[in-house]
Amino acid sequence: MIFNKDTASKTAELLLQINAIKLNPGNPFTWASGWKSPIYCDNRITLSFPPIRNYLKDEFAKNIEKKFGKPDVIAGVATGAIGIGILVAEALALPFVYVRPEAKKHGRLNQIEGFLQKGQNVVVIEDLISTGNSSLMAVEALKAAGANVKGMAAIFSYGFEIATENFKKADVDLFTLSNYENLLTLAVAKKYITEEEEKTLQEWRVSPSTWGVEKESL
Hints:
Elements: H1 5-17, E1 21-23, E2 29-30, E3 36-37, E4 39-41, H2 50-68, E5 73-77, H3 82-91, E6 96-99, E7 112-113, E8 121-129, H4 133-144, E9 148-157, H5 161-170, E10 174-179, H6 180-189, H7 195-206, H8 213-217
Parallel strand pairs: 5-6, 5-8, 8-9, 9-10
Antiparallel strand pairs: 1-4, 2-3, 6-7
């Protein structure tokens, strides 16, 4: 679910402007998973543009309080959401922690870095939601440490059905600044892509794991 349509459209436009999101249906990208994709998203680029990162920070801070109430702690998912998470925590004058994919193998063996007390209310910040698996692993780590996770807020979501199912199964509320549907609507309106390219992008979202495989086998 998006925070609101105006924010979703504005966020999508900003991400396209700085190439944080690239759309290239004719020459697909290859993800680390091996999936072929006509879209590539790297929201860490937003940190290099002060007006844009400030916009994202302010929208997060404003809407997090509306949706979840003011938490005790903001948590960022490493590594992509550490930067924006710190900015959101600063805007809300709250403590910040971040969650590693797994515990360190040395030192204090921490998976959660920072000071977190049992029973504290936490909102988790993510930069991007694909299947949701890594994001929900961070939530589980926080819960295991005794935190009360109020929900998660992310910059962008591909809107995969598997992600919706994963978040529902985990009983975690997810809100995003923008998503795939709003991105495509904006991209066509601003002529980043044609209507024909939009059809290709819609087809990919239906079955991203198999999209493009058929073409390669011909």
